[in-house]
Amino acid sequence: MRHPLRSVLPAFSALTALALVTGCGAQVEESEAEGKGGGGHYPVTVTNCGEERTFDAAPERVVTNDVGITEIMFALELEDHMAGYVMRDRHGETSGVPWADGYEKTEWLGKESISKEIAVGADADLVFAGWNYGFNEAEGFTPATLEKLGIDSYLLSESCRNGEGKARGVMSPLDALYTDLRNLGKIFDVEDRAEKLVADFEERVAAVREQAPEGEDRPRVFLYDDGRDKPLTSGRFAGPHDIITKAGGDHVMSDLEDSWVTVGWETVVERDPEIIVINDYGDVTAEQKEEFLKSFGPLKNVSAIKNDKIVVLDYVDLVESPRNPAAVETLGAFVRENS
């Protein structure tokens, strides 16, 4: 889908003015205009979840859903291109992230589920969300729904469906983050900014990997999101997989070809994790989750429970977000201390 030509007139005026200037000065001014996102940059085409998307101009009124997606925009300093964000009223501690002021610069559109009414009410020209990160057929809110309303969409790469029913995941989680940063850098003409972020994140992750245990020295790690009858955990395509493996852990559910999935407790017991990572998310607190795990009979002989090797990370650390590299650093330190 091509993005509406919202900046055609300004671009036309700029080109007209340039046409009046002659000589080498014209070349200088034209080069400067292109460097600032002028007509020379657009249209641009990116591949998003296997589909080519072409944009004739940078979206001007983006609505984001959920904290990780919103902070991707903040990290790229794209607040001026946002109409607002939708998320729970709790988005984790922000004092340690360099883009925290984005929350003050951008309108919070509510904590209820994103909907077409919210998108239309905000006069959105693009919704940045994902499958099960806002988009959901059961709720009648999908990219196809928005297209009928004249609103474009961009899908979070962690949420891409892989063609096996509704299973999600087409690339490793950190590659999904880097892909979205680069795609958005191209869409909004801030490619240098995106590449700088990716390079910084890659360097930080590489530094952790250099210190991480390898081979049989890697502790077995299980991610616990929630669930009493059956636990919700991470497969190989959700953020925790790369966070665990880059930190030096052996992700015990890495064979699951999906992102966030439910398994049986018997599988957890059989794989005997030596470290459990709790996802601090939802109405059940991390403390309550830890208390449950330690009191749940079937887990009493699991190594992580017997040796009290439990660490808590926040939801925004574990879903695709610019906080993923910091999560690798945090978990990496825990793994080294407890291996």
TrEMBL record:
Residues making up the signal peptide according to the UniProt record: 1-19
KW Signal (keyword) present: yes
Keyword Signal found: yes
InterPro entries assigned: ABC_Transporter_SBP, ABC_transptr_periplasmic_BD
Entries under Pfam families matching the protein: Peripla_BP_2 (PF01497)
SUPFAM superfamilies per UniProt: Helical backbone' metal receptor
Entry keywords, A to Z: Signal
Residue span, Fe/B12 periplasmic-binding domain: 61-339
Similarity comment: family membership: Belongs to the bacterial solute-binding protein 8 family.
The protein, known as: ABC transporter substrate-binding protein
Organism encoding this protein: Streptomyces chumphonensis
